[in-house]
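Hi F.,

I've been meaning to write this up properly since the lab meeting, where we talked about keeping a consistent format for the predictions we share between groups. The idea is simple: the sequence comes first, exactly as it goes in, then the structure tokens exactly as they come out, then a line or two of notes. No screenshots and no reformatting. I'm using this chain as the first example so we have something concrete to point to.
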Amino acid sequence: MSDERTDIAVHLFREAYASQMRGNLDEAVLLYKKSIEMLPTAEAYTFLGWTYRFQGKIQAAIEECKHAIMIDPTLGNPYNDIGAYLIDLGRPKEAVSWLERALRAARYEAYHYAWFNLGRAMLLTDRYSEAQRCFERALEIEPNYAIAKEALSNLKRLLQ
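Output, unedited:
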């Protein structure tokens, strides 16, 4: 792959992310796809999936994450995202194995997200002590993770 193609792909990825953050989701999808055409990366596929999720296209989001995993099975983000999407679809039992894979991923900078989502899955399957352990683990990694704090607090109130 030429350096020029790589540079273009990176530029397109950054533009896609900026569009996504501005709420221009259709534009972000096009830019992520152009980036992938230039240089298919696990990150671009994962972020394309994330954009689809914001558009309500959950199944498409899952498929893009699976493409990401095929390119780089060491990246934790797509495993976590699939788990979160399955929870959104009301399928927390299916989510567990994906989230556990995220926690074993060698290349992942946000393990607290996977712990939090695993806690959500455990909570939805009435495994309260495991949910509590997961939320606590998320907070050990990222003490200021507000939604994990809230989830843990709500769970403790539920168990009283």
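Notes:
The two ends are 59 Å apart (CA to CA).
The chain has a mean pLDDT of 96.

If this format works for you, I'll send the rest the same way.

G.
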